[in-house]
Design a protein that fits this description.
The protein is mainly alpha-helical. It has six helices and three strands, in the order H-H-E-H-H-E-E-H-H.
Length: 163
């Protein structure tokens, strides 16, 4: 029993030493990617949540606002407000759900789909360029970390969704 307690304490200490650097690095990488992508952007800026909502509406035409909110881990009223702004900007079409007039269905416009394709292509090129600058050992370490990062993401998703 003592070994189990000692192992648990060691795991807790290890996790405590890891969480701040990990969250800092992950958040920093995301911020830097967004900043670099803004440089070559044409048209008004597409910030993180807006780009995510457009990507989702392009991938799943007719998605309900409530479903999009769940998928993006945002409040329904936040997605509704964002969808309204994107509609005004000509990137989304909001339509009433024929089965439930209180629900709005979201459709990405052709302009939005083009913007998302361009943004995704720029992000892919950026990441390819940056990963190529790393050593083979660094790329192997990142590849080896992916399963653990996916499990971390799944644990967070489970906690958020309560499932």
């Amino acid at each position: 029993m003592e070994d189990s307690t000692a192992d648990s304490a060691a795991d807790g200490a290890e996790a405590a030493e890891l969480h701040d650097p990990l969250t800092g690095v992950l958040a920093g990488i995301q911020r830097l990617i967004r900043r670099r992508l803004r440089r070559g952007q044409t048209g008004p800026p597409l910030r993180g949540a807006a780009a995510d909502l457009l990507r989702l509406a392009a991938a799943r035409p007719g998605i309900r606002v409530s479903e999009a909110a769940r998928e993006l881990y945002l409040a329904g009223n936040s997605v509704s407000t964002l969808a309204g702004k994107l509609s005004q900007d000509g990137y989304l079409v909001r339509a009433s759900d024929p089965a439930d007039r209180r629900s709005a269905l979201l459709y990405a416009t052709p302009e939005a789909r083009t913007r998302i394709r361009e943004r995704d292509a720029r992000r892919s090129a950026l990441m390819h360029e940056q990963l190529a600058r790393l050593s083979e050992q660094d790329r192997a370490a990142l590849a080896a970390a992916l399963p653990a990062l996916r499990r971390l993401a799944e644990n967070l998703r489970t906690d958020v969704e309560g499932t």
